[in-house]
Amino acid sequence: MIEYNKLRVRVHLDNLRHNYRTYTRLHDRVIPVIKSDAYGHGLLEVSRALESEGVDTFAVGFVHEAAALRQGGCDKRILALLGPIDAADDALLWEHEILAAVSHFDQLRRLVATAETNGPLAIGLKFDTGMRRLGFLPEELPQVIEILSGSKLTPVMISSHLASADTPGREVDVEGQHAQFQTVIDGLAEAGFEVEANLANSAGALAFEQCRLSSLRQGITLYGGNPFCGTSLEALGRELKPAMDVVAPVMQVHPLKKGESISYGWTYTAEADSVVAVIGVGYADNYSRSLSNTGEMLIHGTRVPIRGRVCMQMTAVDVTALMGEGKGVAPGDEAYLLGGPGPETITPEEMAGWWGSISYEVFCLLGMNQREYI
Ligand SMILES: *Cc1c(COP(=O)(O)O)cnc(C)c1O
User: Fold this and answer.
1) 64 and 187 assigned to the same domain
2) Which tens digits make up the pLDDT trace of 54-99?
3) pLDDT in tens, 261-272
């Protein structure tokens, strides 16, 4: 948590709940993905807000994230998508009753051995159907079954992850992964293991009904990011409401005369007499320097462009348009870096576009600042 600044991240928990409900209309088993501190929205705060919606399983990344969620008071099923990395993680699975996705043979054999002393354990199995990160290959299933038989491990879930569900035109690739995954589900069933199967992330669940299977893993859309923004499928995410606003204070307001330049390197020169406001945010607050001369902020409901380079703790914006009769900007006013009220609200995808990134990274990085919940 970054604590040396005046930035505030405001999380609208009501919007988060609303976004979860848009998915419970698609399927009765939605697993909220709250890894990486709930994409910067706060692990415990988000889990508590969703527990009241009837969630029975949460997904996080590493096993110690799962342990932190358990220690924070969560009594629901907790899935650690990244599985146990070392012996310390292994022990946490038993200690906190965590369901971990097991993705390779070393890990599986280690858990089989540990179960001999620690007792029975329910596990998940992760299969690689094309992402080529983690997971057993479909053809490794017989060997997985062989190792499991006679062990104290019980598989209760299998998962795989789609590589291009958010890209219209890649339907064939998604269907290919789905078909491969189905062969694994069928193979396990033939071996007598009836397990919960999930494949779809946010985008996969919205666009591919056949990928919804026994449960969905909802990440980015929970936070109001639309994975189809800017594509032909954009309307699929029209009901989502971004849950994160980020504000920083105006520190000083002064004229920038025609021909004067501003900030390091003088990369911006005023084309006309103008007024700039210096905002208390910079790259040290995870506000990317790539927003220099590119991004916008929202002050009193009006968009204002960034002028010159983003500095470590300061960024200048052009507020000339706000300086007319009866208007004005003064030190202490709030500038929205993300979100904000009204039609000019800065969307996560727009911010990501200026940043040269995706909404996921915008949330994770800005979310490391001090948060308030409303
Ligand atoms: C992060 C993650 C998700 C969530 O993906 P979104 O695109 O954010 O919905 C789902 N499954 C796995 C395995 C993940 O790592």
Assistant:
1) yes
2) 999 999 999 999 999 999 999 999 999 999 999 999 999 999 999 9
3) 999 999 999 999
CATH code for the domain in which residue 108 is found:
3.20.20.10
What tens digit of pLDDT does each residue of 221-242 get? 999 999 999 999 999 999 999 9
pTM of the model: 0.97
Per-residue pLDDT for 324 more than 90? no
Radius of gyration of the chain (CA): 24
Q: Please indicate whether residue 126, judged by its CB atom, sits closer than 6 Å to ligand 1.
A: no
Annotated binding site: 133, 312
For residue 327, is pLDDT > 90? no
Q: Is the CB of 364 under 6 A from ligand 1?
A: no
User: Is there a contact between 8 and 370 (Cβ–Cβ < 8 Å)?
Assistant: yes
Distance from residue 267's CA to the centre of ligand 1 (Å) = 39
Residue 253 sits in a domain whose CATH number is 2.40.37.10
Work out the pLDDT band at 326, boundaries 50, 70, 90: confident
For the CA of 35, the nearest atom of ligand 1: 1
How high is the pLDDT of residue 33? 99
Q: 20, 35, 223, 360: which is the annotated catalytic residue?
A: 35
DSSP-derived secondary structure for 87-156: HHHHHHHHHTT-EEEE-SHHHHHHHHHHHHHH--EEEEEEB-SS--SSSB-GGGHHHHHHHHTTSSEEEE
Tell whether ligand 1 has an atom less than 6 A from the beta carbon of residue 202: yes
Q: Is 51:71 a contact under the CB 8 Å cutoff?
A: no
Q: How many domains does the chain have?
A: 2
Annotated active-site residue 264? The verdict is: yes
Domain interval for residue 317: 244-373
Cα 347 to middle of ligand 1, angstroms: 20
Half-sphere exposure of 360 (CA within 13 A, CB side): 9
